[in-house]
Amino acid sequence: MEELTYRDAVARGIAQEMARDERVVFLGEDVALAGGVFKATGGLLERFGPKRVRDTPIAEQAILGAAMGAAMTGLRPIAEIMFSDFLAVCWDIVANEMAKMRYMSNGQVTMPVVIRTANGAGARFGAQHSQSVENWAMMIPGLKVVAPATPADVIGLLAAAVRDPDPVLFFEHKSLYGTKGHVPVGELVDELGKAKVLRQGNDVTLVALAAMVPRALAAAERLASEHGVSATVVDVRSLVPLDTATLLREIAHTGRLVTIEENPRLCGWGAEIVSIAAHEIFYSLDGPALRITTPHLPLPSADNLEDAVLPTVNRIVKEIVETFD
Amino acid sequence: MSQTGASQAAQDCEPDRATRLQLYRKMLDVRLVEKRAYDLFMQNLIKGTSHLALGQEAIAAAFGVAMRKDDYSFCTYRGHAHTLVRGASMVGVLGELMGRECGLMAGKGGSMHLTSAEHGALGSYAIVGAHLPIAAGAAWSAQYRGTQQVAVCFFGDGTTNIGAFHEALNFAAVWKLPVVFVCENNLYMEYTPIGTVTAVQHPAADRAAAYALESIIVDGNDVDAVYAVAMRALARARAGEGPSLIEAKTYRHSGHSRADPGKYRPTPEIEAWMKRDPLPMYRQRLVSLSIPEAELAAIENDVRAQVDAATEAARNSRPPPVELAFTQLWADGGFAWRN
């Protein structure tokens, strides 16, 4: 075991896969010489050279188009979209092209491409550099969607994404880049579509993703110590494929479901999980499901305004305690 | 290269007799399949929409002959021609249009998405401009793997005004990618004259300078001229000298799509271009080059028979099994999003 930041885990994950497979190439804005605007890809250019680690113009359609064309013809590209908000300017390539090519061609074309992007709020960047857009991706048939919460998951899930034969959107959370975690030494390969139970309780099941995972864990601590409520915490990790088996088992065990989502309210990923639970384990539920989300708003910039709209530990605890009143 | 330059290149790369017959045959393949597609529409055997390349056959045919078998091609929703010239079967194309099991994609793609990966035809793209960066990516892959393959990307004049065109051109030029961008300028972006919505006279060629590329204009109805320009651009790409942008002037004989009779086009314009129909023009040239009439007639009969046979085979093919709708979203063959 060694301690690693989430940021350094990104570079280690990419390096692990590039060292293993010559077909893995990496491109994006400022990723090579500058080592990424979040300093998450430093050292890769030096280690793998300019043929495999490439800076691009600010041209997101070109970046993802190039990644797609390369993936269709034998490479396994990792493309970076600097901020997930920028996916909106190249969404045609993601939603219409990458996601549909295999299906439309009846399996003639394979699309092993990974799109890494910095998602989420917490850095006071305002409405166009802070969004949580994992639900955009989740709605498109043909895309796999992953969002790691820990350094070990960054490496393991990135490796799984690179090795996967289908397009994967890999949402890194920008407020987690500085966080640390223990990572096993040596090659790390995880599996897409597996949720992780981080804490086992009896009263309520908190289902969280990415930056909401540490908040869910902190909330669970306080629920136990201050309110005598024993909470299970599940890190969803992968929205597509979705590990409904683990989720439904853990929800049924406590009989209470709370989703903790950073995305704005409407059509957030939690709504899908609530709907599945309502349909498939209705008689195991002891009360109404609760979705704790960012309200249906763009994100404001000032510290206190951003904090007022994101699900904080205080708000999570308060809303859950209210359901037990 | 100017238009004069293109004529010069045409002399440099003058096709031999066998190549000329191949060019004629490929144009005829496209012409007769497109005409058949039109007829099948009228009989309601083809549903949805369709964008025919009648009148524009010379461009696809010239590239089809000039390209290496393992090169990649990318085209638009007006892509029956570009798919056929790579070697995809007529029954596969007509079957796909008719929504039959024998179709290239067994009915899952339709007219606007013809793909034949085994022939390097890596897709017909129905979102204008999308495939230019994708073609650049295939060229990047060829460059990376050192295979000397080239990606050829066909698109219409309307595409030159969309962002992806400019992103792809710059990207390909900066990375010196082996890609040939071919603008088929048929004078209309869908229903609107291209000149009324474009700041420059030659929508592709006048933009070339912005990406440090030569300005290349060619008569897109002269298959020999297109062939010569194609050979040059392909050789340049294979030699590692980077991309080319070619503007081929041509004309659509019909409207934009099935729904459009093309009434907005002035009659004298149509008449002038019909006189420059690439097929009769080329046939005349072949006769003047002392290729016997009987040899041409034999090709024509052969293609006609092939189209008839392909039509019959496609008609007799079953609709795809319903279960097919639920396959091939993922590489494991299925569409599961949960366990």
Descriptive notes:
The complex is a heterodimer of chains A (325) and B (339). Chain A has 325 residues and is α/β, with parallel strands linked by helices. Chain A folds into two domains: 2-183, Thiamin diphosphate (ThDP)-binding fold, Pyr/PP domains (Rossmann fold, 3-Layer(aba) Sandwich), CATH 3.40.50; 196-324, Rossmann fold (3-Layer(aba) Sandwich), CATH 3.40.50.920. In chain A, 38% of the residues lie in helices and 21% in strands. Chain A contains eleven helices and 14 strands. Chain A has helices at residues 6-20, 44-48, 60-72, 91-104, 134-138, 151-163, 212-227, 244-254, 269-280, 303-309, 313-324, and strands at residues 2-5, 24-28, 53-55, 76-83, 114-119, 144-146, 168-173, 180-183, 196-199, 204-208, 231-235, 238-240, 257-264, 290-294. In chain A, the strands form three sheets. Chain A has a seven-stranded mixed sheet, sandwiched between helices. In chain A, helix 1 (6-20) packs parallel to helix 6 (151-163). With 339 residues, chain B is of the alpha/beta class. Chain B has a single domain, classed as 3-Layer(aba) Sandwich (Rossmann fold). In chain B, strands 2-1-3-4-8-7 form a six-stranded parallel sheet, sandwiched between helices. Chain B is globular, with a radius of gyration of 20 Å. The termini of chain B are far apart. The model of chain B is unreliable at 1-7 (pLDDT under 50). Chains A and B meet through helix 3 and helix 4 of A and strand 2, helix 6 and helix 7 of B.
